[in-house]
Amino acid sequence: MAEIRRVVALGGGHGLASALSAIRTYAQTVDGIVSVADDGGSSGRLRRELGLPAPGDIRRCLSALSGSRSMLARSLEHRFESGPLEGHAVGNLIIAGLADASGDFVAAIEEMERLVDAQGRLHPATVSAVTLRADSDEGTITGQVTIERATGIHNLRLTDPTVRANPNAVEAIHNADQIVIGPGSLFTSVLATAVVPGINDALAATDGTTIYVANVANDRAEARGFGLNEHIRAVAEHGVWPDVVVIDETDDHPVGDFKVVAAPLRGTDGWSHDPLALAAILSSLD
User: Fold this and answer.
1) Which contacts qualify for 223-228: CB closer than 8 Å, 24 or more apart?
2) Count of structural domains, the chain
3) pLDDT tens digits, residue range 114-136?
4) Full-prediction pTM beyond 0.85?
5) Are 277 and 263 within 8 A, CB to CB?
6) What CA–CA distance (Å, rounded) separates 27 from 51?
7) 128 DSSP assignment
8) What is the extent of the structural domain holding 242?
9) Which CATH number do you get for residue 157?
């Protein structure tokens, strides 16, 4: 397995966590740029109650990068099953508590990285809470939860076009040898990060190899009816043009001006990537 010096991964949710689990095995430095637009579940409640960016996707990525076996690191994904904290993940509450106490969401993440011995750095795509907006079959819709349940999604953007990217995220892209986009929910994870002003510009200007990792399964309403070509077209329509597209060996090859790499990538659960198989492919691309 080759060693690539600086790798950045963009997205959110389980897809980005899976990519980071793969990347940490071969890269010298790892940076994750994470969507903070989630407005559902535990993250949504903390956003509404504390006015913070959504911590949930950051939490998943901390779990993926953790080098610690401490009780704290092992408890990040635990959710309360009853009482006023029902549905909250422990990691979400700790991040929110640190951010509320310090007044600095980025500093809270940095402290969490230290506490769980993260084998990489995580950068929220923005340092303020943001809301997604898109056009759909039902017209213009707002909010991540609403968008992920809709169909015919296009023209994804932020409700506030003046919001700028986290400068640390932009710098990481500029310095990267390899940029990994996906896997994950097309609009509410992958493009939710890529459309942020500043990040989109940095992706267009990078000299690093840009890789789009296609999903091995897609059953989300937001991309219902989308095949691989439609996924790649949507990515391009939002200003991202990959140099390489990585697909599972069972997928049809997409059409476009990019290199296609196919390999057995499906994990044992049938819907996610096997991190070691994904790492073997990504580490060979430079």
Assistant:
1) 223/153, 223/185, 223/186, 223/187, 224/151, 225/151, 226/186, 227/252, 228/252, 228/254
2) 1
3) 999 999 999 999 999 999 999 99
4) yes
5) yes
6) 35
7) S
8) 4-39+120-282
9) 3.40.50.10680
